[in-house]
Write a structure and sequence with these properties.
Number of strands: 7
Number of domains: 1
Strand content: 15-25%
Largest sheet: 7 strands, mixed
Radius of gyration: 17 Å
CATH class: Alpha Beta
Number of helices: 6
Strand order of the largest sheet: 3-2-1-4-5-7-6
CATH topology: Rossmann fold
Bound molecules: S-adenosylmethionine
CATH superfamily: Vaccinia Virus protein VP39
Shape: globular
Helix content: 25-40%
Order of helices and strands: HHHEHEHEEHEEE
């Protein structure tokens, strides 16, 4: 009986949390809902990123932090932005329990962040978000900064390469700021 009460209470707490997760709605409308990068793409992402220890990666919308973890394992410093409460909390838990180092997880709308410190940007968003980000990338990224976008290209910005090595359908776009 007590167990059912506890389960009910937890379920209620989760429902209340989701109902008040306005930021998730903002994230959904402003850029993308949560969908994970497929693990099959990880090797290709690492190959394109060519990260060196100490380099700074900004992940725009980090979801459950699977790519954050992958990139942090290279010795890079990863600044991960997530504005949806549930994936943010899952990521916090993951970072703590897996003792991930070099990760700064921010509960923040990435459109309000300054990207000028990034050596690499990683994102898996939507065509709409990529269009909105183009002018921000142009204005803020330092020369040489790479952008890796899973699935969606930056409009009117020629990609340096398009990787399709892990699947016939999904593409990974690589850009570099002049
Ligand atoms: C398609 S998922 C990708 C997650 C992760 N990068 C991956 O590849 O597995 C996009 C994520 O971006 C988050 N997001 C969308 N708009 C955002 C915003 N404006 N600021 C911060 N996070 C945002 C969503 O909540 C979602 O978790």
């Amino acid at each position: 009986m007590w167990l059912y009460f506890k389960i009910g209470l937890i379920a209620l707490a989760i429902m209340v949390l989701l109902a008040f997760d306005i930021s998730a709605l903002i994230a959904l409308v402003s850029a993308a809902p949560w969908a994970p990068t497929r693990k099959k793409a990880f090797a290709a992402i690492l190959r394109l990123a060519k990260l060196k220890p100490g380099q700074v990666v900004y992940e725009l919308g980090s979801g459950d932090a699977r790519v954050t973890e992958l990139l942090a394992q290279t010795g890079a410093r990863v600044v991960a932005f997530e504005y949806s409460l549930l994936p943010y909390l899952v990521s916090r838990w993951k970072i703590k329990h897996r003792k991930l180092t070099g990760v700064e997880l921010k509960y923040q709308n990435f459109f309000t962040a300054d990207f000028s410190q990034a050596d690499l940007i990683y994102c898996y968003l939507t065509p709409y978000a990529m269009k909105k980000l183009t002018s921000k990338f142009m204005a803020e990224l330092k020369p040489g900064t790479k952008i890796i976008s899973f699935q969606f290209p930056l409009p009117q910005w020629p990609a340096q390469s398009v990787d399709q090595s892990f699947s016939g359908q999904a593409k990974i776009y690589l850009y570099q700021k002049n």
